[in-house]
Amino acid sequence: MAYLVLTVVGDDRAGIVQTLAEVVARHGGNWERSELAELAGAFAGIVLVEIADDKRDGLAEALSDLEGTLHVTPYHGPTQTAPAQGEEVTFTVLGNDRPGLVRDVTRAVAAGGLTIDRLTSRTAPAPMSGGELFEATVTARAAAGADVAAAVDALEKLAGEIQVDLTVA
């Protein structure tokens, strides 16, 4: 069996996921996991599909036929999914939005040798100040030898500008 990681982008409209699911099912693929969202009128996402080795190329070709209505790029990944390893660190960030904030947060995460498994973010109007608030939830994983304390320290140094709620699992 093979795994395909599909990146999906197109103008948002009804039926996008159904169209993609039809193509995957027609070629014998199994839709394993996905993260899909509408962002500023565009539909974007990532999908993990398991498929028999001899059907992988046919599925990839069928997905390219969707071009024009939906841009789908398959990544021919490893033949099996590896279980996540290492200490998990989950934290939320909340603060005034500004350019470079994601760079600063991810720099702090990388400083401790952590890899990001998931990052979800949004901006919203600040209730009383009239500005914009930035909120993110990050789940990261510490590889062997990673310095989680260094990452926590780097995040706490940002605390003058942002609030960080940190949970180490």
UniProtKB/TrEMBL annotation:
It comes from Microbacterium kribbense. SUPFAM superfamilies: ACT-like. Residues 90-169 form the ACT domain. Pfam families: ACT_6. The lineage of its organism: Bacteria, Bacillati, Actinomycetota, Actinomycetes, Micrococcales. Transmembrane segments: none annotated. It comes from the Bacteria. InterPro entries: ACT-like_dom_sf, ACT_dom, GcvR, UPF0237/GcvR_regulator. Signal peptide: none annotated. This is Glycine cleavage system regulatory protein.
